[in-house]
User: What shape does this take?
Amino acid sequence: MTEIGTFRESDARDLAPRLLGWTLISRIGGEEVAGRIVETEAYLDASDPASHAATRGGMTSRNRRMFGPGGTAYVYFVYGRHWCFNVVAGPEGSPGAVLVRALEPLGGTEVMLRRRGGREPLASGPARLCEALGIDGAFDGHDLSRPPLRLECGGVAAGEVAVSGRIGVSRAERLPLRFYIRGNPHVSTGPHEPAASGVA
DNA sequence: ATACCGATGGACT
DNA sequence: GTCCATCGGTATA
Assistant: This one.
């Protein structure tokens, strides 16, 4: 349960809440930066209309890493300017990934602040955390058990996990596939979510 | 070939 | 609260 290898045995729906409390450590560019995962979202297979796996052609050049083995990265580019980072779930061949939406900074905050152009928050929001950690398309498919970008196991008490609908999607937005640490101030607040306090 | 649009964030009223 | 930059991937012709 705490080994990264078990990511191959869980689908994205199961993995998303379990990733809360894990640490993501980046040594990209030679500078170590780390954060605790406080918010995730699950994106499932072709039956999930909000998932990149739900494309007519099945596996495509963009989404192919979603079909890779659990424990690797799926990194994609959106809105012409932002990168988003996912942890792939499930065995090779079955698509699914967990979008990491927010980190609680644990170390290297000066590096994060510099990469963020002096703007806060440092790592609350999927594109902000990629900028703070130096993650870009070069890490699409990267094995997250090894440097320069790796996961270290962690977790939170079951009672601290809150659930809601996913943010920023226009389809299947009500499915309870967003997970966050209740009350954590580094959880990103969505467009229409007042604050990270309630349950879904 | 080409039109459409997004798993966002920052600037602005 | 609203607006929109910016561009690769996907869908369509």
Notes: Residues 52, 55-57, 60-63, 76-81 of chain A lie near DNA strand C (CB under 10 Å from a C1'). Confidence is low (pLDDT under 50) at residues 195-200 of chain A.
